[in-house]
Specification:
6-stranded mixed sheet; UDP-N-acetylmuramoyl-L-alanine:D-glutamate ligase; 448 residues; Rossmann fold; alpha/beta; 22% strand; globular; Protein-Tyrosine Phosphatase, Chain A
Length: 448
């Protein structure tokens, strides 16, 4: 993979950029790291300790373009002038995941999809760890893949991959690729063409051969449509809420049937640690991925029963005077919120709003009509939410902080209701990020 000069430029000095820099240095590259914004102190300290040169607050273009390889942060679009210029000069521009894959022979389970990635990745990691495998967790969760390849000697990795990471991957090959679903998101990065986004997600299949396994959702229309025009070389295993023929995971009579060769098994959907239809999908996907590596059935079953969910994803916060508060701050798109509302079985006071990424609220209307009694808007611009749901929900109120939103929702709710923070929007208007939004929500609930 290397060439004689071995000069590498790294754009972005967050977890993935810093990890890539540490790995590159260890592999004998001349490394220069550049971040247009501020670099967090912990990463500055690490880069300095590793003798890696870096700059912040600017990109020294000519210096960066001396490299033969550029590793760019997933947050930097391909249309950024520096990236366009690099392509023009024939410089390889890759993601940190691709770079790390050059230096490891570990088996990989790569998980992508618009929704459910983090939960499924953590669930799969939980099963493999419980089975006693030497396994790392990377991609969008945990420490960066590159850092772990540099510092650990894992034999397996469970990787959560976004479409942006996949866009910068070329020689990477997954042993098991999981595609959970495809729904419109981030279309601003794909020329507002859904087909470009679909193509991006399907990059997870690149370089896979007949000994590899592709796990996908047979109920997802965009996935099944895209499969019609593709020749898949690997073994394919679908999962579905409806009965399936052949190797698959599916649900029949409230029982999950894992029909994976050579040894099928079943478990009740009521035994799953994660409830709700979307989590049945996530659990089936994780279960298949684990069984493909011949992890014992009892370990898979037990892991799916005792898993504890992540912060900010349909996370139970508290019950106050009979009203349940749920933190789903990680729902930054309409589809995630659809999943959240779909899994509610009590009247909902829904806290929504923030920075809208071109949201189309139509798909939520039916669910909102049947489950939502009031909406509390929490954002600087709430017109679109009002426009979408006026006439469907009788009460829609505006607030401009987590504290205010929680108080308003509490007053609108009564015993037996659920207050659900599931914004369907990014958080940057009022908060640092979705974690900050979730934590402020939780602390406001605790002060009621």
């Amino acid at each position: 993979m290397s060439n004689n000069t071995k000069i590498i430029s790294i754009l972005g000095a967050g977890e993935s950029g810093t990890g890539a820099a540490i790995l590159a240095k260890k592999q004998g590259w001349m490394v220069f790291v550049s971040d247009k914004g501020k670099i967090a102190e912990k990463y500055q300290t690490e880069l300095t300790a590793n003798g890696i040169e870096f700059e912040a607050g600017q990109h020294s273009e000519e210096r960066l373009l001396e490299a033969s390889v550029i590793v760019k942060s997933p947050g930097i679009p391909d249309k950024a002038p520096l990236v366009v210029e690099a392509h023009k000069r024939g410089i390889q521009v890759i993601s940190e995941i691709e770079f790390a894959s050059w230096y490891t022979n570990a088996k990989t389970i790569a998980i992508t999809g618009t929704n459910g990635k983090t939960t499924t990745t953590l669930l799969t990691y939980h099963i493999l760890k419980k089975a006693g495998l030497n396994v790392g967790l990377a991609g969008n969760v945990g420490k960066s893949f590159a850092r772990q390849v540099a510092e650990n000697n894992y034999e397996y990795y469970v990787l959560e991959l976004s479409s942006f990471q996949l866009d910068g991957m070329f020689n990477f090959r997954a042993d098991v690729a999981v595609l959970l679903n495809i729904t419109p998101d981030h279309l601003d990065r794909y020329d507002y063409q859904l087909s470009n986004y679909v193509f991006s997600k399907f990059r997870i299949l690149q370089n896979m051969g007949e000994n590899d396994v592709f796990v996908y959702c047979a109920d997802d229309p965009l996935t099944t449509e895209a499969l019609k025009s593709r020749e898949i070389k690997s073994r394919t295993i679908p999962f579905s809420l409806h009965e399936q023929q052949g190797e698959s995971a599916c649900i029949s009579n409230e029982t999950i049937q894992f029909n994976i060769h050579p040894d099928p098994f079943t478990m009740s959907i009521f035994d799953l640690a994660l409830q709700g239809k979307h989590n049945q999908y996530n659990s089936m996907a994780a279960g298949i991925a684990a069984r493909v590596f011949e992890i014992r059935k009892d370990v898979v079953r037990e892991s799916l029963m005792d898993f504890e969910n992540i912060e900010h994803r349909l996370e139970f916060v508290a019950k106050v005077h009979g009203i349940e508060f749920i933190n789903d701050s990680k729902a930054t798109n309409v589809n995630s919120t659809w999943y959240a509302l779909e899994s509610m079985n009590t009247p909902v006071v829904w806290i929504a709003g923030g920075v809208d990424k071109g949201n189309d609220y139509d798909m939520l209307k039916e669910l909102v009509r049947s489950r939502v009694k009031a909406i509390v808007c929490m954002g600087k611009e709430n017109e679109k939410i009002h426009k979408a749901f006026d006439g469907i929900v009788s009460q829609i109120v505006n607030t401009s902080s987590a504290m205010e939103a929680v108080k308003a929702a509490y007053l609108l709710g009564k015993k037996g209701d659920t207050v659900l923070l599931s914004p369907a929007c990014a958080s940057f208007d009022l908060f640092e990020n979705y974690e900050d939004r979730g934590r402020q929500f939780k602390s406001a609930v605790r002060e009621l």
